[in-house]
Amino acid sequence: MSGHQPSFVNTFRSRTHSLAAAAPAGKAKLTHPGKAILAGGIAGGIEICITFPTEYVKTQLQLDEKANPAKYKGIGDCVRQTVSGHGVRGLYRGLSSLLYGSIPKAAVRFGVFEFLSNKMRDERGKLDSKRGFLCGLGAGVAEAVLVVCPMETVKVKFIHDQTSANPKYRGFFHGVRHIVRTQGLGGTYQGLTATVLKQGSNQAIRFYVMTSLRNWYKGDNPDKSMNPLITGTFGAVAGACSVFGNTPLDVIKTRMQGLEAHKYKDTLDCAVQIMKHEGPRAFYKGTVPRLGRVCLDVAIVFVIYEEVVKGLNMLWKTD
Questions:
Q1: pTM of the model
Q2: Do residues 266 and 255 make contact, with C-beta atoms less than 8 angstroms apart?
């Protein structure tokens, strides 16, 4: 009996050791949705404080319709007029409304993405690009309905109001109260269809590109670490792809949420009127400032998100 035990024990130990050694290298670590919500919220708040001026300029150019006639000659003229009239702080008008929305928006986005992706990964914990696209689509639709549409509607109305001769809104919360009192809760959900299309396609494209680049970089080692520079570069590429993919939807969404949204019957009517009165180039108004902001935006968000998750993994054990 004792002559057979060493052989059995050695075989058992050998198999157990080989399984233990293979597990860490063979399966990617999953991110708990709770960590994703917290890390996403932190990343969203920091990012918008850095990039808001370009968002302000983009919105102004999109609202500056040719028929008015146009108030601004271009990006530089928009910045000059704003600074000369209101100082540098003028480029941050409307920040509060976007800040209040950016934190829950990023929290919902990453929370839903990680929740869905954890369900759709293969046995090695790898998420292929097609499933990354679907998870991104789900995350984008969720953030559009829960956060983006009401917050973006308020933001656009607030910025548009501040540029009028006699501004009605004294601040973010006063603006919200005024909109709800005069237009009902539906007043904060103008352009929902365009917003869902925009956010859904936005995140689908970004997470598809990000997942594809991440899988390419990591190869057969899903646990291979990515430094912030690599993450930021991949994020910027993903952001650029989403800009060229859905700027027309962004223009339509902005028009549907502006103070003159009553001119349009619905999302399709808005698109038809823009094409009829301003031509196809109008669908790409604000592309340059949006490109700069989105590339920086997505790069910053992914870098901060990944780094915060790493920190949370050391403090919050969920395995």
A1: 0.71
A2: no
